[in-house]
Amino acid sequence: MFNKKKAVLKSFLITCVIGSLLLTSACGSDSSSSEEEKDTIKIGVLASLTGALEAYGKQTVRGFELGLDYATDGTGEVVGKKIKFIVEDTETKPDVAVKKATKLLEEDEVDFLVGSTSSSDTLAVLPLAKEYKRIMIVEPAAADSITGDNFNPYIFRTGRNSSQDAVAGAAAIAKEGVRIATLAQDNAYGRDGIAAFIEAAKERSAEIVAEVYADPNATDFTANIQSAISEKPDYLYIVWAGSNAPWKQLKDMKVQEKGIKISTAVQDIASLKTMDALIGMEGYSIYYHTLPDNEINDWLVEEHKKRFDGEIPDLFTAGGMTAAIAIVEALKKTEGDTDAQLLIETMEGMEFDSPKGKMKFREEDHQALQSLYSITLENQEGVDHPVPVLIRELDMNETEPPIRNQ
Question: Which PROSITE patterns did the record assign (predicted)?
């Protein structure tokens, strides 16, 4: 009987020791996992990886990865902390953007949001940044209302806004006595862009003779173009984004042969390949790889060619890179602290370098002040698209937009 009790006691003690060891092991694992999480900064990137703006979204993601490499000297770390980024496809649908952003914030517990390609997607997500107290870097969505009527203090935009586009566009063509008609997509980007352009053009004493908006999903813009040019303007100023641009129809309708000059933003390379009809136009560029003259852009061009079979970086590649650089520079200043209030205090007024040169987050609305480029379009031998040639750089002071969040 005594031996039986002894055996039971021994078995009990062994079970306790094993249980203790397992508990210690489990706690150690949780502790290790917790430490690893603590030493990792997570960034959620929202982008249109499908849909009409797919090309823009993919450029942004590629540029963001290059930007992290550049800003961290290839280590993927800042102040001893690893950086992990998670990409989600918004499908260029605001409701999907909200769903994906919520997933990033709740399940992935990201420290930053970046995005999105579409202004409508971005506007839908902005309240979540405030609700979850996370900094959101807006790139490349351009609607003025993002840093205007819908602004909240957790929003910082590295992309240019519609008013900056407008100032550059007006600087290229608007002056006293010039008659201008406008054409744009009927969405947040188009309407904000035209409203800002009209404001800037009128400040230069130009006359707006027609204001026309088209269905963003349409493919035939004949009636819209006819409506815009019926008032016989000197210029037709166009705000457009996406692959269904009206350039071919403008050529087919012989708009320039009617004595009406076309002016617009030079968008991505795919758009440039459709702009043969616009050779000789005077407009502006947000970015083209030959326009900026600085070391970061040189690195971007060479590294992009090296990694992607000789391809040159595109419009939103530079934007994605800029967003990544801005985050890393802010984290360097906070020594890796991701507290939103500290980041806001740090980033307001912060200057940082980018592929477009020096940028600065304006304190009042967190819009990044930046250069744009007055250009003309030319054919160049050996290049399969019209090339933007620099007339002059419009620096951050010249392109500073109105403050619209007050």
Answer: PROKAR_LIPOPROTEIN
**pLDDT for res 33:** 52
Task: Check pLDDT > 70 for residue 48.
Answer: yes
Give the integer Cα–Cα distance in Å for 321 and 316.
8
* Residue 12 bridge partners (DSSP): none
Whole-prediction pTM value? 0.83
Task: Please state the domain extents for the chain.
Answer: 40-160+291-370, 163-285+374-394
Per the CB < 8 A criterion, the answer to whether 46 and 115 are in contact is: yes
Q: Indicate the pLDDT class of residue 270, thresholds 50, 70 and 90.
A: confident
| Residue 79 to residue 96: CA distance in whole angstroms | 34
| Domain formed by 163-285+374-394, architecture | 3-Layer(aba) Sandwich (3.40)
CB-based contacts of 14: which residues, under 8 Å, 6+ apart? none
Class of the domain covering 40-160+291-370: alpha beta
Closest C-alpha among 49, 70, 59 to residue 325: 70
Phi, psi of 264 (to 5 degrees): -160, 175
Radius of gyration, CA atoms only, the chain = 26
Measuring CA to CA, which residue among 92, 165, 111, 160 is closest to residue 319?
Answer: 160
- Higher per-residue confidence, 384 vs 17: 384
Tens of pLDDT, residues 95-115 = 999 999 999 999 999 999 999
63: left (phi over 0), alpha (psi -120 to 50) or beta: alpha
Choose among 175, 188, 190, 160: nearest CA to 284. Answer: 160
